[in-house]
Amino acid sequence: MSASNGIGSLGTVELRTRREMILDRLRDAVIEGTLPPGTHLGEVELSESLGVSRGTLREAFRHLQQEGLLVADSRGRLSVRVVSPEEVEDIFQVRGSLESLGIGMTCALPDRTKVVADLESALARLDRPDITFAQRVQADLDFHEIFLTAAGNPTLVATWRWISGFVRASIIAAGPDTALDNMTVERHRPIIMHIRNGDPVAARAYLDEHMSSAAARVIEGLRR
Questions:
Q1: Which end of the chain offers a freer environment for a tag, N or C, measured as fewer CB atoms within 10 Å?
Q2: Residue 126 to residues 85, 139, 143, 154, 158: CA-CA distances in angstroms?
Q3: Three-class DSSP category at 219
Q4: pLDDT in tens, 118-150
Q5: Tens digits of per-residue pLDDT, 22-32?
Q6: In terms of CATH, what superfamily is 85-223?
Q7: All structural domains of the chain with their residue ranges
Q8: What class is the 3-80 domain?
Q9: Is the pTM of this model over 0.70?
C-alpha cells in the first residue's frame, strides 16, 4: 500500500467519525426535546451552528429520516416527526409482536445464564441517576435488544433495529415524564424473572401488558 493511500484512508475514517458525531448530537437533541416535534430544520442555519458542511449535515438528516425521527413535507423540507396517537398504537403493536416472538425463543434456550446476567447489567445502567434522558432511552432499547439477540434469529433483530427509530419517536412522543414512567426498573425486572424461569407463556403475557400499558400512557399523554 502506498503512503498516499494510507493517508487517504485516515482521512476517510476521520470524516466518518465527524458524521457520526453530528448524527448523535442531532438525535440526542430530538430525544431531549431541544428540537421539539414539528421543528423545521434549516440546512444553512444548522450547518453554520454546528460548524459542519451542508453535505455532512444532509447525511445525518438522511439517516434520521430513515430512523423515522425526521419527516419531509411535499416540498422536501425536513422537520422533527410529530407522532399521532394512532401511530403510537401501530408502532407498539409491531414492536410488541417482534419482542413477543423473541422472548419466547429466549425462554426456550437450554442455558439462559448469560442472557440473564446481561439483562441484569443493562437494568443497572437503566437505573443510573447520572445519565441523560437520551442515554436512558438508549439504555431501555439496549435492554430489550439483549433478549432479542439471545433468541438467535438475525432477521428478527434486523427488523427490530429497522423500526427502532420509530420506537424512539413513539417513546418520547408525550414528553420525558411519560417516557420515564415507562422506563422504570420495576417495569423491566419481571422480564428478567420470566426469562430466568424459562416460562415463555408468562413472559409473553407480561411483555404484552408491558407494551400495551406503555402505549396507553403515551397515547393518554398526547391526547391530554
A1: N
A2: 26, 5, 8, 25, 23
A3: helix
A4: 999 999 999 999 999 999 999 999 999 999 999
A5: 888 999 999 98
A6: GntR ligand-binding domain-like (1.20.120.530)
A7: 3-80, 85-223
A8: mainly alpha
A9: yes
